[in-house]
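Re: your question from the hallway

Yes, I did run it. Sequences:
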Amino acid sequence: AQKITQTQPGMFVQEKEAVTLDCTYDTSDPSYGLFWYKQPSSGEMIFLIYQGSYDQQNATEGRYSLNFQKARKSANLVISASQLGDSAMYFCAMREGFMNTGFQKLVFGTGTRLLVSP
Amino acid sequence: DSGVTQTPKHLITATGQRVTLRCSPRSGDLSVYWYQQSLDQGLQFLIHYYNGEERAKGNILERFSAQQFPDLHSELNLSSLELGDSALYFCASSVEWGPNTGELFFGEGSRLTVL
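Structure:
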């Protein structure tokens, strides 16, 4: 079974609008971390936001927020007030075993390509 | 700038050759991870080193090897290269101990093209 599922291969949004990128995950570990990364066409992987499984509140970082619904095992990324520079590939990732600091591999989804139009 | 440095940024070589990719982690990070990103496989975990010791292996071919040196930089060696090894190779580093949220900070990647 896929650990991380991103069902939207591509998304379009107009500048200044909000957009939600979907991510569902599968784990039986009570301790895990969820991440979103942005990969522009230049190729680098840019860390955006993190949510720990025990965090009570949804994570926010500027225009990015993570809509964490633990019971549904979803961790959707919300980008408010989209900008042209937000056009990129977005990856959701999960790290299991949060308390086990011996190994922190991230497993990535297949990504969603976001295109922001003027 | 993530603070993780990878060299070279681009590399073109021929089948059968051997290349070495280098990674310098962020200052203070003891862990180094290598990932491969190809068009048909997505982002695949290859190997993890912590403070010079190999901690875990992922989908790493036997033709590939890595090491982490005392100064914590790491090298990924790819030998007997095949066309299918063409990919973007990422190094990432993290702090594993203490109050951290477990982010992996990625370098800009080394784009390998095998002709």
